[in-house]
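User: Quick one: structure for sequence A, then sequence B.

Assistant: Sequence A:
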Amino acid sequence: MVKDGSSVHVRMNSEGFLLDHTLWSRELGEWMAVREGIELTEDHWEIIGFVRDHYLRCGHFPNMRVFVKAVAGALGEEKGNSRYLHRLFPQGPLKYACKLAGLTKPPHCL
């Protein structure tokens, strides 16, 4: 990743998850999304921000069912449903939201 002409190095695991979530930035999230072939919209950023905030506040990841319910409670039923979340992150909403939020892979994601 390059910023202002100088290299910025971040360590990732073999699946592309950051090893240190404190190094995350929105710019890094955008760079990671490009690598994954995901064009981020404000809808994506809302979910990425939600999962990042949840993890930093609670210290753990919800499972997918709890994640969907938590999104519905925080952002409304139209966003807190599996169809909406899979439209944003077709390869796995929780896994890819966490990845682009700079978090480690949730333990219950394949």
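Sequence B:
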Amino acid sequence: MQGTIQFSLGILAEAGLSYVGLGAQPPTPSWGRMLADAQTMVGIAPHLALIPGLAIVITVLGLNLMGDGLRDWLDPRLRVART
């Protein structure tokens, strides 16, 4: 579904803008800001960058898979082809 793709793109855009300092400002939490803050500590505590990065990946992948599943379930053209 188009909505899930757009929502995923919105998450990626917000995270990217926050990473470079143009998104949500502190104290508002943002995965991009968390990644930017953790960048200086990757050698000491890599989990600080790994956790928000994985959260972004899992969320975007989950939304895209949910959209694919909804399309497969709701698209009448695919429903006819299965029978």
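The two ends are 22 Å apart (CA to CA). The CA atoms of residues 40 and 72 lie 43 Å apart.

User: Thanks, that's what I needed.
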